[in-house]
Amino acid sequence: MWQWSALRIVPLAILLAVVRPVAGATIEGTVTDASGKPLENARIDHIGKRVIVVSTDLATKPSPDEIRTDSEGRFRVTTDVPAFVVRKPGYESERVRVNGDAQVKITLQRITSTSRCKLSVPPHFKTKQANDVDYTATWYYIDTKTGPQGIISGSGPTYSWGAPSDKDVWKSADYSEFMYDSGVVDASGHSADGKYWRLRSIFGAAAQYYNQTRENAELLDCVMDRVPVKLR
Questions:
Q1: 108 φ, ψ (degrees, to nearest 5)
Q2: What b/e sequence results for 22-49 when a residue is b if at least 16 CB atoms lie within 10 Å of its CB, and e otherwise?
Q3: Which one of 79, 97, 124, 159 is least enclosed by Cβ atoms within 10 Å?
Q4: pTM value?
Q5: Taking a C-beta distance cutoff of 8 angstroms, is the pair 125, 112 a contact?
Q6: C-alpha span between 150 and 142 (Å, rounded)
Q7: What is the mean pLDDT of the chain?
Q8: Whose CA is closest to 85, among 95, 76, 72?
Q9: Rounded to the nearest 5 degrees, what angle is found at the Cα of 189, between the Cα atoms of 73 and 63?
Q10: Is the dihedral of CA 166, 213, 18, 75 positive or negative?
Q11: 155-211 pLDDT, tens per residue?
Q12: CA–CA dist 231, 208 (Å, integer)
């Protein structure tokens, strides 16, 4: 039986405990690289507004309601969300938990490796087309102890906004992310009950898996590293 997707159901009590907002917290901070140099135009995302990430080739200006660091790496945000992400092309992103008013110093590290594969021999995968009227997509799947499991990679005008959902950022018990120089966001995490997910995305295109065991996620990560994320 194919197990391409499953409802991501989280018990209400757990969800409320994890994503319970902090009323009107104000966070002031600075963002630097490992040498202490201020990073200008770093993004402050998932603060309760829609996040759209486009290719850096497009060189689009931020919309008026988006928050970016200034020339000295400083930012200020008032929000009622439980966490937000600081990201900039070419760096490992940082998720910041919100527990009330705070002043923070954030150091972003340059990306040294984009692979999440931990296996010496990556698994062989098969493919299956999954096109629809408004997008093109391909399943990349492998055989596992729990049956066929896969990654879907697709593109289309409204296929992806280019970033993980706010809830995935807020509720994941563990979260990690890279933002490639191209603008592609590679995010992963797992829920409190041990369900793993990963998403590589840019506006209009994404590759992703959800609701996986840790063992299956490690296998799929080795496939994901070889799956393209590209526009039509």
A1: -100, 130
A2: beebebebbbbbeeeeebeebbbbbbee
A3: 124
A4: 0.86
A5: no
A6: 6
A7: 89
A8: 95
A9: 40
A10: negative
A11: 999 999 999 999 999 999 999 999 999 999 999 999 999 999 999 999 999 999 999
A12: 15
Q: Looking at beta carbons, which pairs linking 118-121 to residues 24 or more positions away fall under 8 Å?
A: 118/218, 118/221, 118/222, 119/218, 119/219, 119/222
Lookup: tokens for 26: 């104000």
Provide the 10 A C-beta neighbour count for residue 77.
17
Number of H helices, E strands in the chain: 3, 15
Residues in the chain: 232
The arrangement of strands across the sheet holding 126-129 comes to: 91-92, 174-179, 185-190, 196-202, 205-212, 147-155, 136-144, 126-129
The alpha carbon of 108 is separated from its chain's Cα centroid by a whole number of angstroms, namely 16
Q: What is the DSSP string of 27-92?
A: EEEEEE-TTS-B-TT-EEE-SSS------GGG-PPPPTT-EE--TTSEEEEEE-SSEEEEE-TTEE
Given a contact cutoff of 8 angstroms between Cβ atoms, the answer to whether 9 and 53 are in contact is no
Q: Which residue type, as a one-letter code, is found at position 111?
A: I
Give the separation between CA 213 and CA 195, rounded to whole angstroms: 6
